[in-house]
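Q: What changes when flavin mononucleotide is included in the input?
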Amino acid sequence: MAKSGDVVYPAGYEPAHEDVKSIETRKSLLNAILGDHSKEISEDLDTDLFEVMKRRRSTRKFDSKPIEKWKVEKILAAADTAPTAGNFQGFEIFHIKNIKMKEELVKASNDQPYVNSPLVLVFCKNQSRVKLKFPKRMLAKFAIQDATLAAAYSQLAATALGLSTIWIGMIDEKKVAEIIETDLVPSSLLCIGYPVKRRYPKPRRNLSDLIHVLE
Ligand SMILES: Cc1cc2nc3c(=O)[nH]c(=O)nc-3n(C[C@H](O)[C@H](O)[C@H](O)COP(=O)(O)O)c2cc1C
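A: The predicted holo structure follows.
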């Protein structure tokens, strides 16, 4: 039984950092993971959010180098910091470690081979968590926004950690759900790894065309 002040880990979850266990003042695992700025971690971490945004570029060629466990933890914890409708967290994340499942996810994503990347996360809607008195249609909308925001937070976190990502929206939702054995509806996959080559960000439209100022 956990005592007050103990760090409580979800079942099946093993933190990479031994020292996390001894930090009694930190009440939550999330704080422990996100607040860890030990030297080894700081060297690989870009904490300037705007630099991270400027630098992010999708990657479709990943190195086979595995991702350090502490980076995976930070990416997952970052998702948990995203705002959600009513703070009900209407989404779930499936961290796919199973090699066979990754191969099947390639097929369920219109044969996009880069889906089979070192780190594969499937974000799903879970509108049953959203306990707000609104029509179902609205709750479904909240859940997809929750799942999308969480994936975007993970994507930025991965970039801050020197990794690259590809967001996969072209999925057969039914097939993905079958593969990962869930009744939930998947919203997107986030595939993460070290890029074979770092590339410059893609251009966008002019800000003046994008922003519509109404006075
Ligand atoms: C909603 C959404 C769906 C996407 N689906 C796919 C996809 O299925 N396959 C893929 O290769 N890229 C996909 N992408 C990545 C986009 O192609 C990429 O973000 C876009 O070209 C801009 O490039 P950048 O991310 O390097 O800025 C998707 C991105 C978003 C936001």
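Observations recorded in class: Residues 57-58, 60, 112, 166-170, 201-202 surround flavin mononucleotide (CB under 6 Å).
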